[in-house]
Write a structure and sequence with these properties.
Blueprint: E1 5-9, H1 13-24, E2 29-33, H2 36-45, E3 50-54, H3 62-72, E4 77-82, H4 89-98, E5 102-107, H5 114-125
Parallel strand pairs: 1-2, 1-3, 3-4, 4-5
């Protein structure tokens, strides 16, 4: 079985740690980028199956990051996540999907097993089963 590669783009270190811990136990290769610019650099040198993108980060935001990632890595599935759920969230979700991203309703803080569940769902839509 191939080891699926996942990139997590979030300025909160604890989020990356949660992904590495939960998905690492399942055999996924998880890399962390602390902002959109770093994610773009990483995606230029490595192909990722899934890229989880936080919406609100310093520098380029999640929609801008998603749009640029789709140019660099069109085969990667980009997934919306946020810690800020308010009336503006729906507009950010719409812009994210217009930029080529997917919405799997991954809102922080994550519940037990939620990261793995969303990861498996996104991979199954790509035809990858685990």
């Amino acid at each position: 079985m191939a080891e699926e590669k996942i990139l997590v783009v979030d300025d909160e270190k604890i989020v990356g740690t949660a992904f590495k811990r939960e998905l690492g136990r399942e055999g996924f290769e998880v890399d962390i980028a602390s902002d959109g610019e770093k994610a773009l650099e990483m995606a230029k040198v490595k192909k990722y199956d899934l890229i989880f993108v936080d919406m609100i980060m310093p520098g380029i935001n999640g929609v801008q990051t998603c749009r640029a990632l789709k140019e660099i890595s069109p085969g990667s599935t980009t997934i919306f996540m946020t810690g800020y759920v308010d009336k503006e969230t729906i507009f950010r979700e719409i812009e994210f999907t217009k930029a080529g991203g997917k919405i799997y309703y991954l809102y922080k803080p994550f519940g037990e097993g939620e990261i793995l569940s969303v990861t498996k769902k996104a991979l199954s839509e790509k035809g990858v089963t685990r």
